[in-house]
Design a protein that fits this description.
Length: 267
């Protein structure tokens, strides 16, 4: 006669599979000292690479000439359409196999480049939409002051456009952090392993999913504060600074928000 597992046994098995605190405590030191630092390094490097590529691609996408827009449009459409895992393999495995080895045999550089290329494709569209949302009169006013087109874009239009897309950029940065988990496919060397790689090794060794839960907590510790920080910055930029000190003599009078009158002033 077959006996079904009691609810208590099933609950204990579930808790032990995902909340094995002894295994989590054993995994956390490596996650913090190695995995977290490498994840931050890969994501930060990818964000820098992505922003540089995105700014160039966005400027090309805004050109009036179709043959200038075409390469940028192909790049954006291709790398937004490909699965991330394919791009990581094409860059991290395909380039070295083809004899293109800008980082030698070190997979860490290829990991940053792969995530950066993907990030640049998405961020280019974010920048393009932000720049196009700026009133065309801003560019015309800058040109009337004698600025060249590129100088006016760099100093006047692009900063305003980027300010308007900060929340979308925060979402993309969070996406870069999460996508860095796929670079484990490149076989990172000892000391280069990121959060998912370390957790996956422990899961394969112990057949327990608790290390994945620990890695997830580390990812949340990165992504949630970043989201709130950028949202706070966006709010401050939209509201503008509030001045509380009296104006200095000779300083131009800048309109300030109305302040309620005090009892003495009412009298």
């Amino acid at each position: 006669m077959t006996h079904l597992a009691s609810p208590d046994l099933a609950a204990n098995a579930l808790v032990n599979t995902f909340f094995n605190w002894e295994l989590i405590a054993q995994t956390f030191p490596r996650l913090i000292t190695e995995g977290l630092l490498n994840t931050i390094a890969i994501a930060a490097g990818a964000i820098v690479v992505g922003i540089v590529i995105a700014l160039l691609a966005a400027m090309l996408l805004l050109s009036d000439r179709w043959w200038v827009r075409l390469p940028a449009r192909i790049y954006v459409d291709v790398f937004r359409g490909l699965p991330v895992i394919i791009t990581v393999m094409l860059v991290g495995v395909g380039l070295p196999a083809a004899g293109i080895r800008p980082f030698g045999t070190d997979p860490f550089g290829y990991a940053i480049l792969a995530i950066g290329i993907i990030s640049g494709a998405y961020t280019a569209e974010i920048f393009r939409s932000g720049i196009q949302s700026v009133d065309p009169g801003q560019l015309q006013a800058a040109r009337s002051l004698g600025m060249s087109y590129l100088r006016a874009m760099r100093l006047v239009v692009v900063p305003q456009g980027i300010r308007r897309v900060l929340p979308a950029m925060a979402g993309q940065f969070v996406k870069d952090i999460k996508e860095s988990s796929l670079v484990y496919l490149l076989g990172l060397a000892a000391g280069q392993r990121e959060l998912f790689f370390i957790a996956q090794e422990e899961v394969a060794r112990t057949y327990n999913s608790s290390p994945l839960l620990a890695a997830g907590v580390c990812y949340l510790a990165l992504t949630i504060p970043m989201t709130y920080l950028v949202n706070h910055l966006d709010k401050r930029l939209r509201e503008g600074p509030r001045r509380t000190d009296p104006p200095v003599a000779g300083e131009p009078d800048v309109p300030q928000p109305p302040v309620p009158a005090t009892a003495g002033e009412k009298a």
